[in-house]
Amino acid sequence: MDVSGFAQKLLHSSWQEKVSDVYLLPRKKSFEIFFRRQNRRWLHETLPEEDGRQLVRHFKFLANMDIAEKRKPQLGAFTSQMNDLQIRLRLSSVGDYLGAESLVLRFFQEDESITNRYLLYPQNYLESQTKKRGLHLFVGPTGSGKTTLMYRLAKNHPHFQQVITIEDPVEIEEQSFLQLQTNAQIGLTYEALIKVCLRHRPDCLIIGEIRDGETAMMVLRAALTGHVVFATLHAKNLAETYTRLEELGLKKAQVESVMQSVTFQRMVEIICPVCGNTKNLDCQKIHDACLVSVHPAQKWSQQLRKAWAYGFINADTYLQEKD
């Protein structure tokens, strides 16, 4: 197999179908390639076992991951050229108990079509909120567009001349930002990089994800020093946000003293204006969009009900996303 040519063809097919994730999963004597878009996953192709392994090694090489290491989880990223666009991909690999390695590729489809993927987008309110110094959290499940929204708000802000990002890995390349990437092997942890960044006097500091207590405390200190700090956090809903921060060792009073806004978002299936369906994979139009609610201005349930009332989503989607 021409692994390089096949990999490029696979990425091109994935891009054309607007998928968010590509899974390379080992089976007993083969590899299965799955595409995922929103809540739908389907089998794209089955490869011989050795061809699948070559493909995994090829993608890991492109993402500067350790090809020899098949057991430990690894993260990586690389940029691929699609026609006139440069597409950023994030990779995650892990080996199972038998030593067989799987790989997931996440697409960051940063193009003009994304502007049409927001429902009831409270842009004016969000832009006014992000002018305030302090902490702005972006909460939601994986793949809900948190990083994309943070980048967009920071890039469009007229007073943010110096924007610094700290991520693991860098997900979206933005030339106007100073983008830093963690590397625990040489001591470039979130905590260490945050300390350095504060000396650069950023107008906006973007933290990829609050994962542990040390990072949470450093984010809190950065916000307390009067900086505008954007950060993501995995939480089920708005109410769970403070609980998650308390679990990471922050006191509620400390958080409330610096918290300016909590933006909760999810990708929801929308009713296609062309085919009138939510699950028609043959239709090339976008069938999902990002629904955003901002605390304290809105509640998620209110935004979801409004999207249903306007006919953007159907009753099944409303009930599914209600919890």
**What is the terminal separation in angstroms?**
46 Å
Strand content: 25-35%
Shape: globular
Question: Percent range for helical residues?
Answer: 25-40%
What's the total count of β strands? Answer: 14
What is the count of DSSP helices, taking H or I runs of 4+ residues?
10
* Poorly predicted regions: none
The largest β sheet comes out as: 8 strands, mixed
Order of helices and strands: HEEEHEEEEHEHEEHEHEHHEEHH
What descriptors fit this protein?
8-stranded mixed β-sheet; 323 residues; alpha/beta; 6-stranded antiparallel β-sheet; globular; single chain
Task: Walk me through the structure.
- By secondary structure, the chain is α/β, with parallel strands linked by helices.
- It has ten helices and 14 strands.
- It has an eight-stranded mixed β-sheet with strand order 7-14-13-8-12-11-9-10, with helices on both faces. Strands 3-2-1-6-5-4 form a six-stranded antiparallel β-sheet.
- Strand 11, helix 6 and strand 12 form a beta-alpha-beta unit.
- Helix 1 packs across helix 2 (49-62) and helix 5 (190-199) runs parallel beside helix 6.
- The longest helix has 14 residues, at 3-16.
- The chain is globular and about 55 Å long.
- The model has no long low-confidence stretch (mean pLDDT 87).
